[in-house]
Amino acid sequence: MNALARLRKTSIRASDIAAQYWCEKQMELNYLYGQKITKEIRKGRRIHGDLESETNVPIVLMPTSYADFMYKSVYTSYMALKALSEKKKTREVQVYGKLNGFKVVGKIDQLDAKDNEVIVQEDKTRGSDNIPSDAQILTHKVQVMLYRKMLEDMKEERYARKDFEESYRTSTLSITPEFRRQLESTGVERELMSVSAISDAFFDSVRKLDRISDTLYLRYINQFTGNVIKLHRLKYSDEEMAQMIGFVMQYWNGDREALPVPEEEKWKCNFCAFFGNRCKVWWAQSKLDAG
Ligand code: SF4
Question: Whose CA is nearest to atom 5 of ligand 1?
């Protein structure tokens, strides 16, 4: 059985793939036993919300069905791309794709339009001004590289509107009358009031984007002060991305079990909620080290 079916998921998140590069076993345990929403996670979400309201028009819609949710998600990203052409900067753009036949979804934190290129940026919040470790940067690098690949795949129609229709059956989805009423009062054009129509408009906007830059940014922000701790610049590489995908897909295909961290990275276990309970891979070893 492949991992997606085992975890009862329908799609892989880009953040899951990034998390595999921290500890694949931890990523899996989070799905099996639930990730606690900590104060830090809540704080991080608030900062992302604050940044989004700086560039994007706030969208107040209350979806009640799957079709409504799907509409809101695509519409929000469509509006975010409009903001990119007007303000040269936008936030929170959903990307969709397929890897080895598995659906993959993600949300890009920020896009900047500069010198006829679109630049992808990922923001990470931290509890202190400490510079992120190489291991943390690697995890975030995988995520931002994947976002860049997914956006380009959509732009170049390697993942096209018809693939999206095939994956999400958008033509069969009908929004609720109450949601339609909300769209009307928001001023959405009548011809865009179906999941199919808004999906067409969104994919069309992605196709018209300028070239997607190979330069990517990771921005680290102190969650208490809002100050930028570090802006890390990196280069996208198709070859490196292909290697990363090859590695993570062995897990999703069910070709191997979730890997724990290797011995030289067992320091990560000290920060893991599953250490000594759900996961004892390095537990005995840690006692020996302490003794
Ligand atoms: S205890 Fe260590 S090896 Fe086990 S899931 Fe957590 S980080 Fe991974």
Answer: 26
Q: Taking the model in full, what pTM does it have?
A: 0.91
- The least confident of 53-57, 102-106, 275-279, 280-284 is 53-57
User: Model confidence over 52-100: pLDDT tens digits?
Assistant: 666 666 678 899 999 999 999 999 999 999 999 899 999 999 999 999 8
Question: Which DSSP helix (H) or strand (E) runs through 17?
Answer: helix 14-33
**Cβ(21) to ligand 1 under 6 A?**
no
The CB of 272 under 6 Å from ligand 1? The reply is: yes
Residue 265 has pLDDT above 60, yes or no: yes
Phi, psi of 156 (to 5 degrees): -85, 5
Ligand 1 centroid–CA 248 distance in Å is 17
By the 8 A CB rule, do 195 and 71 touch? yes
- Angstrom CA distances, 140 to 16, 56, 135, stand at 11, 24, 9
Pocket probe mutation, ligand 1, options 268, 271, 277, 287, max atoms within 8 Å of Cβ: 268
pLDDT at 126 exceeding the cut of 80: yes
> What spacing in Å lies between the alpha carbon of 19 and ligand 1's midpoint?
12
Cβ atoms of 32 and 284 within 8 Å: the answer is: no
* Ligand 1 touching residue 261 (CB < 6 A): yes
* pLDDT attached to residue 36: 58
For residues 196 and 218, give the distance between their C-alpha atoms in angstroms, rounded to a whole number. 33
